[in-house]
Amino acid sequence: MALVAEGTATTQWFAPQRSVGLAGTRRFWVMGTHGMAKGVFVHGFLTAPRATAATSRATTKPQGTVMKGARYGADHLIRCSVTAYLHDRAERLQVSILDGMKSGIAAIVLDQVRTSGQIVDLTDTCAKLDARGLRK
Question: Is 54 helix (H, G, I), strand (E, B) or coil?
Fold first, then answer.
């Protein structure tokens, strides 16, 4: 994750991550003081809300088939991955509890960055989590 400041605009780059259950599937999230964009390449979906002090608009552009009833298609992928793991068809899950904790912290901080316009450094927080030895 990297924070970039350009003039009066701040941009938050959320590193691409592999989706659970389908190798090669990618997600991204770019957030700045003027709005954000996020995409899930499992089905080619892009959401680009524009934020101002008074309003927030979202522009959604599906680039492919979206799975009905699923949250960006991830529900199905997670279910397949967990089922394969529980039935010994996969050695491990693709994400750990540490990944989940870091993602949760990042989501909370991204909201803080978006509303406050301030840059938040997560280096110490991530180092403390890594020091716990949760990734083995």
Answer: coil
CA–CA separation, 53 and 111 (whole Å)? 15
Portion of the chain with pLDDT greater than 90, in percent: 1
Largest distance between two CA atoms of the chain: 53
CB 77 within 8 A of CB 20: yes
**HEC profile for 64-124?**
CCCCCCCCCCHHHHHHHHHHHHHCCCCCCCCCCHHHHHHHHHHHHHHHHHHHHCCCCCCHH
Q: What is the pLDDT of residues 54-77, one digit of tens each?
A: 444 444 444 444 444 445 556 677
**Percentage helix, strand, coil, to 5, in the chain?**
30, 30, 40
Phi and psi torsions of 128, nearest 5°? -65, -40
Which conformational region is residue 82 in: left (phi greater than 0), alpha (psi within -120 to 50 degrees), or beta?
alpha
Burial grade of 44 (CB within 10 A; 0-12, 13-18, 19 or more): middle
The residue type at 43? H
